[in-house]
Design goal:
It comes from Ottowia thiooxydans. Keywords: Receptor, Signal. Belongs to the UPF0065 (bug) family. This is Tripartite-type tricarboxylate transporter receptor subunit TctC. The termini are far apart. Strand 5, helix 6 and strand 6 form a beta-alpha-beta unit. Strands 1, 2, 3, 4, 5, 6, 7, 8, 9 and 10 form a ten-stranded mixed sheet that branches. The chain folds into two domains: 176 residues, D-Maltodextrin-Binding Protein, domain 2, CATH 3.40.190.150; 117 residues, Periplasmic binding protein-like II (D-Maltodextrin-Binding Protein, domain 2). The longest helix has 23 residues. The protein contains eleven helices and ten strands. The chain has 325 residues and is an alpha/beta fold.
Length: 325
């Protein structure tokens, strides 16, 4: 009959304790959240709020490191190759990365679904259609009529070919039968600047950008490109409410990801910690001020949601025929 030696029994009994100790060590060490974009944007702002509150919760240092460039892919590549122990995380612009995966393919340098554990979805940020305050329209249908009266005479700003703003503009044109000239800019700021100056007649921007510029009185927000109205923009109806159906919502999804080999126990604890801080009034208020809807769901939800997102934008890009060439 098979029997365990005393040494084997001690090793067997110690294994769960060692695993627990290893997990505790992984959770207590300092953590870096990588942001693949420059400081100052919505993604960076959210990452810094989460880092500060996670550090307090965990009793350790959590810092934000911006590794900008190549449409956010430099930062993503860095995290995909980082130690898989929860010490290096990626603040993900999931919608942009899903679009990149379709348009760039293997040139991204990683696979969004295979090279990461998607720990959590932390927020949704709808896009908003804005126009200059000087444009003589007061609602979406008036804008559509004005654009149709001047085929090719209205311009819509984008943040580059294949950007979310570009794709949203193409979807809008198809849904409304308008002929708008897409003008690419290196970022939303120069595009909004020209829109305010009257050189551009429309632009899709994220809610944060719309909120900041509405305060100046130099723009009008005509429609939310999401499923619901935004608390920070209570007077702005959705596209659907105003009779425009684009096929799917234009909402930026943000999350936290870890390298693919990160143990499930580490991922689950990270998810629990993130949900704890996201439920804090201070965090939810700061996210709301940015126009971000807080999300507190499981890591399984995050994985399913990003899989859906990749499929959604794959179809949109095929339907619109957008390419980087």
């Amino acid at each position: 009959m098979f029997s365990l030696s005393r040494r084997q029994l001690l090793v067997s009994a110690a294994a769960p304790l060692a695993a627990h100790a290893g997990l505790a060590h992984a959770q207590s060490k300092d953590t870096t959240i990588i942001v693949g974009y420059p400081p100052g944007g919505s993604l960076d702002a959210m990452a810094r709020v989460l880092a500060q509150r996670l550090g307090v919760l965990r009793g350790s240092t959590v810092i934000v490191d911006n590794k900008a460039g190549f449409s956010g892919n430099i930062g993503a590549q860095y995290v995909a190759k980082a130690p898989a122990n929860g010490s290096v995380l990626l603040m993900t612009a999931l919608t942009t990365y899903a679009i990149n995966q379709k348009l760039m393919g293997t040139s991204m340098g990683y696979d969004l679904l295979k090279d990461f554990q998607h720990v959590a979805i932390v927020g949704y940020l709808p896009n908003v259609l804005i126009v200059p305050a000087s444009l003589p329209v007061s609602n979406l249908q008036e804008f559509i009529r004005a654009a149709k009266a001047k085929p090719g005479g209205f311009s819509i700003a984008t943040t580059g070919v294949g950007s979310l703003e570009h794709i949203a503009g193409e979807m809008f044109k198809r849904a409304t039968g308008t002929d708008l000239l897409a003008v690419p800019y290196k970022g939303s700021t120069p595009g909004v600047t020209d829109l305010i100056g009257g050189q551009i007649q429309a632009m899709f921007v994220n809610t944060s950008t719309a909120i900041n510029n509405l305060k100046s009185g130099r723009i009008k927000a005509l429609a939310i490109a999401g499923p619901n109205r935004v608390e920070a923009l209570p007077g702005v109806p959705t596209l659907t409410e105003q009779g425009v159906k684009m096929g799917n919502d234009v909402v930026s999804i943000f999350g936290i990801a870890a390298p693919a080999a990160t143990p499930a126990a580490v991922v689950n604890q990270l998810n629990a910690d993130l949900n704890t801080v996201l439920k804090e009034a201070e965090v939810s208020n700061r996210f709301s001020a940015l126009g971000v809807d807080v999300v507190t769901e499981s890591s399984a939800f995050a994985r399913n949601r990003i899989t859906q997102e990749v499929g959604t934008w794959d179809k949109v890009i095929r339907d619109t025929g957008i390419t980087l060439s």
